[in-house]
Design goal:
Blueprint: H1 8-19, H2 23-35, H3 46-70, H4 78-99, H5 102-130
Helix pairs in contact: 1-2, 3-4
Region (Disordered): 109-131
Pfam families: Arc
Organism: Tahibacter aquaticus
Amino acid sequence: MLRLPDGMRERIAKIAETAGRSMNAEIVHRLEQSLQGTAPGDAPSPTLLHWLFLRAQRIDVQTELDQLKQRPASTATDVDIGKASERLLAVRRLMGELETSPAFAQAFESAAESGREARESPRAATRKKAR
């Protein structure tokens, strides 16, 4: 038996239905995703990769929106600007949801730890050679 906070069962059921999985399969899938990339030297987690993809997409959409706003009024329509603004808000919302997830915090910390270890390894090797 698994106890879930209020409302989480419904959220999982909705996500599982959208993904075409059972609730159990969705929970197992999410657990597997959150456990990938947790050991130093592992590949980045899907959560972190997803965030990086969204960040790149946000930059692209922001650039497009800025370019549309700089065009003469005759070539950039309000509809184009509105659509780009909506896409930007959607990407920002998805990034915000991802950034508040425990999986993101874990993936981010794991990546940071791997980076620290990678930077320290050459230093340690250099110190050993100097001795």
